[in-house]
Design goal:
Helices cover 45% and strands 20% of the residues. By secondary structure, it is of the alpha+beta class. It folds into two domains: 62 residues, no CATH class; 173 residues, no CATH class. The strands form two sheets. Strands 1-2-3-4-5-6-7 form a seven-stranded mixed beta sheet, covered by helices on one side. The N terminus is likely disordered.
């Protein structure tokens, strides 16, 4: 069969008028089932294909049930525009203090953070010593840090719980502070960071399902690949770790005000500028592009 003769047959196959409602539903269900199954596969390329499949399913829903490919494009694009609902209704109104003063804080109860004790045992099992529990609170936002230090490696670690508007998540971090002021951090923060990193902060980001041992191994490899030796890391006083973190938070705020991501209000608080809101949206798109 010649190519010209084949084209009408292909066009007939894709004529939605010939497809029953049941066929369209089965196509959508099959595509979403395959996409979700791919998301559970360990291989990153297949997980990426799974996310692409979810976007493709959204296109199919719009196209198959309206007959318009434009509707399909709109449904797929809605995933990319959906964050603006959160940005315009909550982030735009969010205010934070200029100074995040850390203080000793009672650990959250077991129902709020059931994994805290188990993770603490993992961290201490790698030779880190528990230094203190600190945090800060502001309106509907709270942050808790359990701090650790390992003198042999001159490394500090933290278990961090963030609770904002009754949505909570935690992450683990390991940091080494170099003599030249560079901070080398390995963490499993689950999202792209919502602020610009200060120039002297180098981050090695891992997936959220990594154990503390895997983070620790990756951090040592991170230092090795960047030729950071133990002699480049000054000994830290465990009592000053809280103040070091507070100084880091202040530097982060100052840097983002200078770059226009944040702006200071007349009352001295800070909030996201319009540029900052677009920055948050781009960070979301980076997570989609990463498809991890």
């Amino acid at each position: 069969m010649t190519a010209p003769a084949l084209f009408p047959l292909l066009a007939a196959d894709f004529d939605l008028a010939h497809w029953s409602l049941g066929s369209r539903v089965l196509i959508v269900l099959g595509t979403i089932a395959l996409s979700l199954a791919l998301r559970t596969v360990p291989h990153p390329a297949l997980r990426k294909l799974g996310v692409a499949g979810i976007l493709g399913t959204s296109f199919l829903i719009g196209w198959l049930f309206s007959g318009s490919w434009q509707a399909g494009v709109f449904c797929a694009a809605s995933w990319l525009l959906l964050p603006w609902l959160e940005i315009l209704t909550r982030v735009r109104k969010l205010t934070l203090p200029l100074e995040k003063n850390l203080r000793h804080k009672t650990p959250p109860h077991a129902e709020a953070f059931p994994a805290l004790n188990e993770i603490t045992e993992e961290v201490e099992g790698e030779g880190f010593e528990h230094v203190d529990d600190v945090g800060w609170d502001w309106q509907n936002y709270a942050q808790f840090f359990r701090l650790f230090y390992k003198p042999a490696d001159r490394a500090q670690s933290a278990i961090c719980l963030i609770d904002q508007h009754n949505v909570a998540f935690y992450y683990l971090s390991i940091s080494s502070r170099a003599q030249d002021g560079t901070i080398w951090t390995t963490w499993n923060y689950p999202f792209s960071y919502s602020l610009k990193l200060v120039p002297n902060w180098r981050v090695n980001r891992l997936r959220g399902d990594q154990t503390f041992f895997e983070l620790y191994e990756s951090h040592r490899h991170f230092l090795h690949m960047n030729r950071v030796a133990l002699a480049d890391l000054p000994e830290l006083d465990p009592e000053t770790i809280q103040h070091d973190i507070q100084r880091d938070l202040r530097a982060q705020i100052t840097h983002n005000i200078a770059t226009g991501i944040l702006k200071q209000t007349a009352t001295g608080e800070i909030r996201y500028s319009w540029r900052g809101m677009f920055f948050i949206w781009m960070q979301f798109l980076r997570d989609i592009a990463r498809l991890s």
